[in-house]
Design a protein that fits this description.
The chain is of the alpha+beta class. 33% of the residues lie in helices and 20% in strands.
């Protein structure tokens, strides 16, 4: 697998597709999205709507949002999802938000 390329612009077919998918989202709405697209040659992750310009904080927020979705996907499929970072198990809890429904 090739090394990941981090850019601020869509630089190949899959990232252009993901960019087009997020074109329908309203700017300034507070909506954040992470688009994952894969084909036979690899895949891309396209975050949209995340604040700038503090990369370490934003990268952490993107990671946590993706982890929360993976956690929920695991629950929906009937298994537990755990997170291990640098060999350490990271406690991961999701607080239910009744206003989100």
């Amino acid at each position: 697998m090739d090394e990941p390329i981090l850019t601020n612009y869509p630089h190949e077919r899959l990232s252009r597709l993901a960019d087009a998918m997020t074109d329908v989202l309203p700017d300034g709405s507070g909506i954040r999205a992470i688009v994952f697209i894969d084909d036979d040659n690899g895949g891309i992750v396209h975050p949209w709507g995340y604040p700038e310009p503090e990369p370490p904080l934003v990268n952490s927020l993107i990671f946590l949002d993706a982890a929360a979705h993976l956690y929920d996907l695991g629950r929906a499929l009937g298994f537990d999802v755990g997170i291990i970072i640098n060999g350490q198990n990271v406690p991961f809890t999701i607080q239910e938000n009744p206003d989100r429904r």
